[in-house]
Protein: Transposase
Organism: Singulisphaera sp. Ch08
Amino acid sequence: MHTVRTIVCKLTPTPEQRVEIDATLKAFALACDFAAESARSLGFTNKVKVQHACYREIRETFGLSSNLAIRAIARACAALKVSAKMHSAFAPTSIDYDARIFSFHEWNWNFGLTLLSRRVKLTTKLGERQKAALKGRKPTSAVLVKRRDGAYFLHVQLTDEAPESIETKGTIGVDMGVKNLATTDDGENFSGADVDACRRKYSQARKTCQRKGTKSAKRKLKKISKREARFRANENHVISKRIVAKAKDTASAIAVEDLGGIGQRTTARKADRSRMKGWAFYQLRQFIANKALAEGIPVIPVDPRNTSRTCSECGHCEMANRKSRNEFVCKHCGFELAADWNAARNIRDRGKVMCPNVGVVDTGGRIPVETTGKPVLASPRR
Ligand SMILES: [Zn+2]
């Protein structure tokens, strides 16, 4: 199992190098278009087959080095596999690099990249964090990116063997929600108030843009969505970091709701539902999984059904237990707790049942819970 970290490095090309990079970006995008067109007409997206069909022509037509041509074909095939609609055109904004066409020189923090006509050395502007991450490494893949403001970056991928899974002593249950983005079984809350404020702030602007429907309105809409997504991603990074740090400190596994169930779990109002199901939950869970994997912390997906209406003290399950969105009061034993906190405790207990590293499972006489699968380590990011 591997973990992949991406280090974003700012490049500082000379004016001549800029021209060369732009020409290469353009040629690469055109080559992608050409490869996609060939794949479409051939009717398959297997990169080896497509390569057989158009490799020579791509090299001759666009002047790309052999490995850049192969990367362009690979990208086109990958894009076609993802979207049935298929790309109309590739934008000249990024190029994939592998070990043969890219190198890293630690002594002066430069990168060597193959461009159209030759190999060039590009100087960088790196912070201490990036230098520390790159020190002593031999990265084997990277993506050259030109941003909208004209700045060039190299996204360097560092692949590591994931550490062995740690010996866990306990399990942390994490409940994900709207009001509280995440709640752990010890009652720690990560409020969604900031995210909600951000969403509200942009929601009016979005409505206006959608009504207008002009080209510039659509552009603005895209910008707003991106800004909001960045905000939420940042929140998710902060939360996942904190949860994984807590698991590490206490040598615990992390139990989270099984993703498939997140959309169906609640009886949320309709307005909430669209927010419930979204990618943000998937993202938070994914961030937790990625960070946990890098620390060797097992992540256990559990069946999320009824976690919000089951008493985490006596196991009694009834819809009426959930007094309101925020309050939980058990009809059977009178146990009271914040609803999210109670759910997190249930998730923890379900995780414990499934975690092989926990010696004695104390179910406390509770009703047995259904499990959704074996404890697994998160899949590595691609
Ligand atoms: Zn109870």
